[in-house]
Design brief:
Helices cover about 45% and strands about 15% of the residues. The chain has eight helices and six strands, in the order βαβαβαβαβαβααα. Strands 3-2-1-4-5-6 form a six-stranded parallel β-sheet, sandwiched between helices. The two termini are about 30 Å apart.
Amino acid sequence: PNMVRIPAPLAKPQNPVPVIGSMGRFVEKKGFAHYIKALGALKRSGAQFKAILGGDGELEGELKALAEAEGLGADLSFPGWVVDKNAFFAQLDIFVLPSLHEPFGIVLIEAMAAGMPTITTDSEGPSEIATHGTDALIYPKGDADALTQALSSLLSNPAKAAALGAAARACAIETYDIKAVGARMSEAIAAILSPRR
């Protein structure tokens, strides 16, 4: 599989209110409109939070307009393209990957490696990487209401969120760490090159 370098454990954020984040290219298949709609519904439910959407792209104007229409105002920030992903994750309490189409999802593995409580869609790659209820919450792609419910469930249960984040990091270390994958590749190559008996 694709590999990541596992960062040192991130310091747990001490945010006045929980911070929810997502990042990527601002294109249709990334599903950020559904993310913003879910945040809007979450705010209307009375939940207290801040949110971040890192990235840029052709839909930037539309997404910012949608955020205003959803009444998010100062509650959702757009910091631009994310260069230092670990610094980005260190700000967050919850990470969301709302992709409508995601063949693999390297950012999902990076979030898991950072120990993020993560919510992702059942798109192609993420549904194979994550296990619902064990190391992430998985919801039907394009379903903003389901995302709102998933966010609400983690905001109301910090212990559950922490357990998901710890399990996500363990999964990333075991399955996607560059050293672990490298060792498996070395074993496979040795087996292929060994003389047949």
